[in-house]
Amino acid sequence: MHNYLRILLLFCSLVPVTVLKAQIDDVSFEYEVEDLSSYQVIFRSFYRSGTGPEVFFAAADTLLYSFEWDFGDGNTGGGPVAVHSYASAGTYNAVLTVTSLTDPGEVFVSGAIPVTVDDSFEVPNVFTPDGDGINDSFIVRSDGVTPLTVTIIDRGGTVVYKHTAPVINWDGRTAAGTRVSPGVYFYVITSPEPLYNKTGFVHILYNR
Question: Could you tell me the CA-to-CA distances from 189 to 28, 122, 160, 196, 204 in Å, in that order?
Fold first, then answer.
């Protein structure tokens, strides 16, 4: 979903559009934590006119407005959609400021909204790497910063996959690119952070 959003924004920036200045009474934003990292957050800005529904800003709106994000940790960003990685868990007060480029005196501030990121750790017990776009990967969700070493072992004791990285996203293939057989596999995850040390079983299924 997130990659689709980025591709859509790129497409919008390349296609000529007619931009009409919106009537804005207030601005705000929503945020979503990335699937692969509990420290990485996607922010999307929107505005309201009167009591009307929220309308999300698009890439083309940068022709008429500037967007300044204060992520609450000393870092800033721009654009109607922003992606930010926090360095540690906590609650941060983020603020969005939207300024009209045609009338610099027209400034809208969202107010501080608390954004909470935590040290979540999630390991799936089943995935289906059959290429249908649904649950295709063995994704270990952690902070996306601490290095993890994951080892996948089949029932015969053979290591079919081993990798060290802050983000683990295994597609069910060996280092040679061969899909592993369906069945139950044992995993071992180790890291410098005790929170992220874990062993368990994962079921690999196909055609489900």
Answer: 40, 11, 14, 7, 17
pTM: 0.70
* 112-123 per-position pLDDT tens digit: 999 999 888 899
Question: Do 48 and 26 touch, CB atoms closer than 8 A?
Answer: yes
36: left (phi over 0), alpha (psi -120 to 50) or beta: alpha
192-195, Cβ contacts within 8 angstroms, sequence gap of 24 or more: 192/146, 192/147, 193/146, 195/119, 195/121
What is the end-to-end Cα distance of the chain in Å, rounded? 21
Strand ranges, E, within 123-182: 126-127, 138-140, 148-153, 159-165, 168-170
Which band of pLDDT confidence, cut at 50, 70 and 90, is reported for residue 2?
low
Domains of the chain, earliest start first: 2-117 (2.60.40.10), 126-204 (2.60.40.4070)
